[in-house]
Each structure stands twice: as C-alpha cells, then as structure tokens.
Design goal:
Shape of chain A: globular
Number of helices of chain B: 6
Helix content of chain A: 25-40%
Strand content of chain A: 25-35%
Order of helices and strands of chain B: EEHEEEHHHHH
Shape of chain B: globular
Distance between the termini of chain A: 51 Å
Largest sheet of chain B: 5 strands, mixed
Strand order of the largest sheet of chain B: 2-1-5-3-4
Radius of gyration of chain B: 16 Å
Strand order of the largest sheet of chain A: 4-5-8-6-7
Distance between the termini of chain B: 35 Å
Oligomer: heterodimer
Helix content of chain B: 25-40%
Number of strands of chain A: 12
Chain lengths: ~260, ~160
C-alpha cells in the first residue's frame, strides 16, 4: 500500500534536488515504480525525473553513459550497449519478467536501490562502473554498493569506461522470469580480471580473491572456488547458503571460461 | 492533479488522484480490456502501450502518462481480432483473462522484431503469464500468425 500526496515533475535537476531536500523523509524520487506497490509508504512528495532527459544512452569522453531513466529494455536494444562488453548488460537483464516490465524498470531504480537480487548491479560491478550523483559527484559503484541507502541524493547516470574489455555473465533461476538464485559476472582488460557475485542473496560484491586467481593464471576453476570461499552467502526461499556457495564456484568458473573463449576469438 | 492523456486517439483532460496508476485510470474510463491481475508487475495482464511501447499499466503512474499517447486493446481491435482468430483456431484462448495483455505484447513484438526466433519470442513474452495451461496453443497460434503475416493483406501498420 502506498499513497502520494503531491506528484511533481521538476524542470531542472536543481529543482529536483531542492524538492527532495525540502523534507527528505517525506519525499521519494521515483524510478520505474515496479516495486512501489510491494512496499508500504506514505509519500508526501513524489519526484518524477522522467522529464529531465535522463533517458539517454551516450558514448562520451571515453565512457558509455547510461542515464538514470534509461529502461532495462533499452539496454537490450540500444546498439551502443549491445555492441560493447560482449553484450552482458543486455544479457543480464533479459531474464527479468518480460518486455513490458523492462520498459518500466530503470537503470537508476535498479542501481540506487541496491537490490540484492539485481542482475544489473552484478554486471556493472564487473565492468568497473561508476555512478554520478547530483550532490555526491562521481564515485565507484563498488563503494556506492557498500554504502547504506540514504535517500538524500539523486542518481544521474552510470558511467562505464569504454575500454574494450571483454565480459561474461552467468545466472541461475528457479524458473524463467524469477529473481536470480545467484549471479556472477567477470571482465578482463589487458590480462586484469574483475569478478562480481550477486543475489547471494545480499547485494552484489566484488570477489577480489577470484580476480587474483585469474590474474595469476591459476585458472577458472580456482577462481570459482575462491569466490565461493571468500564471500558470504545467505539462505532465503530460493536457495540455501550452502547451495549458493556451490553455485558461486560453478558460475564464476563458467563466466571466466566464457570470457577466455571470447578472448581467444 | 490535472492530466491530459490521449487514449486510443481520444483526449482525456481529467483531475486524478496523485497515486492513481494507469490501470485504474483506463478502467475508470471504460477501457475494460485492461485487466488487473497480480497488481505487482509480474503477470503482464495489464499490458498497454505508452507511446507505442508495451508497459505494465498496474505499475505506471497515471501522472507519468500526462501528455502521452496510450493504446489499449480497444485501439487495435482489428489487428487483435485477426490474431484472436489464430488463437481460437488453436484452442489457445482458454478462459481469456490473460488474452488482452498477451495480445498487446504480441502486437508490440511484431512491430519491434523482424522474423523473431523462438528464443526471442519466449524472451519477449515471458512476462505474460497464462494460468490455464502451458503455452503450447498460444505458441502454435503465434507461429501460424507470424508465418501467414495477415497484417500485410489487411493493410495494418
């Protein structure tokens, strides 16, 4: 159940920021609104960013930039996204419900909320992305993901260096369109690897030990085992912690092997 | 708040509650093809188009549709009826409750994808749930419809 007392379309980012900070506890910056009904909120002021041209995908200053209002379906279809990083951004979101849902859900909503089940944040972590906040400026996504959620800033865009890195994404679901039981992503640039694991079911995080294994040439299986051992896994209705741990070893190994194959090609 | 929403070519200049979703707006003004299913963004029953893109009207704020064009099944009824005949021929209409949302997703897919593969079709329509049976009848109907391309003969967009 939710209620909205006033609904506003700010015309500038400065206005959006001012509206948010007039009373942070009572205001809400709206994303795709897909999960709005699952919560219980009385929103005094709903701030809708859809008229601020934040739905743009651009390649600018050596980076791929994804505006906060870019929809998940845009990630599947926009050539600037599908042609980069072996298409893992589109691949990572392609199992989320259906296209009508993905035309609503946004990059900003997914990233800012730091949902544990998010496929997208797992893929973005492996790509060494940064987030650009209105007040907080540009910060690395891994730092943003590790910080507590404070609804006191506005996410403007996500930036990924257009460095030609190769990448792979793997996930397991109990059924099509369900949340992932576990997700893993890897990327490789000039022999330097980045590994992330999501839906643990806690928030996605980097697996530094797994990346180190790959950097040292110990192989995909060793990386998988390292990811299983170094991170914590939890239990929920989709899977137990032990099962997730075993999945992590397999998915990280598969993603690394896939990335190695792509490197050969 | 006051909104101007165009539904199937007809402009509605209305005062709405700030927390109204597009689903409620459409049903209030008689577009009863738009069905309430899960009401939590999961089942696809409430699929309509906003500016030609399929969205879930149960989770799309009506305020956000201010100034935009919305299309429901009533707005594409000839094409919907054409596809509906293929569903009937395959016994795929079942109880019919999910059909409007499913058909809106199918017609959107036809506009977006050229000669989609089985995987692309499954991927596109995965969010439109049918609880009557499996999806075999719907898949047969869809494949026959895509093969026949009746919209080319009927002069549809």
């Amino acid at each position: 159940m939710y209620t909205i007392k006033s609904y506003v379309f700010p015309e500038t980012l400065a206005e959006a920021d001012e509206l948010l900070h007039r009373d942070i506890r009572a205001a809400a910056v709206l994303g795709g609104c897909c999960w709005l009904k699952l919560g219980c909120r009385r929103i005094s002021r709903a701030i809708d960013l859809t008229r601020l041209s934040l739905d743009q995908i651009e390649v600018k200053d050596g980076c791929l930039e994804l505006g906060a209002c870019v929809t998940l379906h845009q990630l599947e279809t926009h050539p600037a996204v599908t042609s980069r990083f072996d298409g893992i951004l589109g691949e990572s979101v392609s199992h989320i419900v259906g296209v009508p849902f993905r035309n609503c859900a946004t990059v900003g909503g997914s990233v800012f909320s730091r949902f544990g089940f998010s496929d997208l944040t797992c893929a973005l972590l492996a790509l060494d992305a940064t987030v650009v906040l209105y007040r907080g400026g540009e910060i690395p996504l891994d730092r943003f993901m590790a910080s507590p959620i404070a609804f006191d800033d506005i996410l403007l865009k996500v930036r990924i260096r257009d460095d030609g890195r190769q990448a792979a994404y793997q996930s397991v679901r109990r059924s099509t369109t369900d949340f992932p039981t576990l997700a893993a992503a890897v990327s490789c640039l000039n022999g330097q690897w980045t590994v992330s694991v999501g839906a643990r079911p806690a928030r996605a995080v980097r697996a530094e030990g797994a990346a180190a294994c790959l950097n040292e040439g110990k192989g995909a299986a060793a990386a998988g085992q390292a990811a299983a051992e170094e991170l914590t896994y939890g239990t929920d209705l989709r899977a137990g912690a032990d099962y997730r741990k075993k999945l992590a070893a397999v998915l990280v190994r598969r993603a690394a092997e896939q990335c190695m194959e792509e490197n050969k090609g | 708040m006051k909104v101007k929403i165009t539904v199937n070519g007809m402009l509605y200049n209305k005062h709405i509650p700030n927390d109204m979703m597009l689903l409620e707006f459409l049903r209030k003004y008689g577009y009863v093809s738009v069905k309430r299913g899960c009401d939590t963004s999961n089942c696809g029953l409430c699929t309509v188009w906003v500016e030609g893109k399929p969205v879930l009207s149960c989770s799309y704020p009506a305020a956000r549709a201010d100034g935009l064009n919305v299309t429901t099944l009533e707005g594409v009824k000839e094409e919907a009826a054409s596809f509906g005949r293929y569903m009937t021929a395959q016994g795929a209409e079942q109880c019919g409750y999910c059909s409007p949302g499913f058909i809106m997703a199918v017609l959107a897919m036809r506009r977006e994808l050229t000669d989609p593969t089985e995987e692309e079709i499954s991927n596109y329509l995965a969010g439109n749930l049918c609880r009557c049976s499996g999806y075999a009848g719907q898949t047969r109907a869809l494949r026959a419809w895509l093969n026949d391309k009746p919209w080319e003969k009927e002069g549809q967009a």
